[in-house]
Amino acid sequence: MNKEKRETGVLLAGYFRRHRVDFCAILLFALIFAVVFSLYQLPVEAVLYGAVLCLAAGILIFGIDYLNYWKRHRFLKELRCRITLGLSDLPDAQELLEADYQELLRIDHEDKSRLISEADKTKSDMLEYYTMWAHQIKTPIAAMRLLLSEEEETVFRELSGELFSIEQYVEMVLSYLRLSSESSDLVIKRQPLDGIVRQAVRKFAGQFVRKKVALQYAGVETEVLTDEKWLLFVIEQILSNALKYTPKGTISIYLEPDQTLVIEDTGIGIAAEDLPRIFEKGFTGYNGRINKKSTGIGLYLCQRILKKLSHTIAIESEPGRGTKVKIGLASALLEVE
């Protein structure tokens, strides 16, 4: 109610400012008439009678004009919601200055549309290029892996580990580009969680062996409403982080009763001051400064992807005692079509 009163007061003040010259002219004319009637000593009744008639006519005229002013204000206020689509809905200009202002708006709108179009084209070209690059680089990676199979076992393991990291970074680039595009090709349906987890575990089997890190996973018999490809990417990223920051020990994967998938490691943990910022884009924290290869993109992508899937992610950690990543897979906000 107070807001409506304030809006009415502002509207009335604006109307009076708009017509201040008219009101001043009327007062001036009334003063002139009063002086003339006084000099000629005309009857006061005639003056009052004329003044009352003029006042009544003025109230009627300005009342109708204020009503039209209010209607135009309401129309323009409603127009704010769709003005970004075009200026065709603007009311017809009632005077030359309004026409000038509308012409300025049209010029500004056309310039803005041109800039947006150029920016969209630049972004589209960049996405197309990097997507093509990410696909093309997979060919030399595959060739390198084939050549490495002929090397000695020790050299093969070390180089294979580095090549695996390259593949992970390429996959991260592709996922980042796909997530930034207008369509992230989500396919939401019920998926067996065990199959998704085992795909990720198989991919990192060589890394577990190379780093001599034990895996504890007994399987989970449940289905979740999700997108298999994107959830697999998230689990792979979390496993990659767990392996990166677990020099020795165990990584455990299990499901809690409330449909929460937990990936727990016994690694170096995360500093308490870094925990509130770990999902920020580009944030690497204390561990990232030690490990120069950290990009600060993995967890940022995980959070964005899980938000799209209507899942949640939370991390609990203590320095020197490991990290526990919890992925909430409850899907009450999603419906299967």
Structure description:
By secondary structure, the chain is of the alpha+beta class. Among the domains are: 78 residues, no CATH class; 143 residues, Heat Shock Protein 90 (2-Layer Sandwich), CATH 3.30.565. It has a five-stranded mixed β-sheet, with helices on one face. It has a two-stranded antiparallel ribbon with strand order 1-3. Strand 4 and strand 5 form a beta hairpin. The longest helix is centred in the middle third of the chain and has 41 residues. It is built from eleven helices and seven strands. It is 61% helix and 12% strand.
State the main characteristics:
Heat Shock Protein 90; alpha+beta; 7 strands; 61% helix; five-stranded mixed β-sheet; two-stranded antiparallel sheet; 337 residues
Strand content: 5-15%
Name the quaternary structure: single chain
Secondary-structure-based class equals alpha+beta
Question: Spans with pLDDT under 50 lasting ≥5 residues?
Answer: 332-337
The H-and-E topology, N to C, reads as HHHHHHEHHEEHEEHHEE
Number of helices: 11
Proportion in helices? 55-70%
Principal-axes geometry comes out as elongated
Measure the end-to-end span: 44 Å
Strand segment count = 7
| Alpha carbon gyration radius | 35 Å
What is the name of the CATH topology of the domain at 186-328? Heat Shock Protein 90
Query: Could you name the CATH class of the domain at 186-328?
Result: Alpha Beta
As laid out across the biggest beta sheet, the strand order is 2-4-5-7-6
Averaged pLDDT: 79
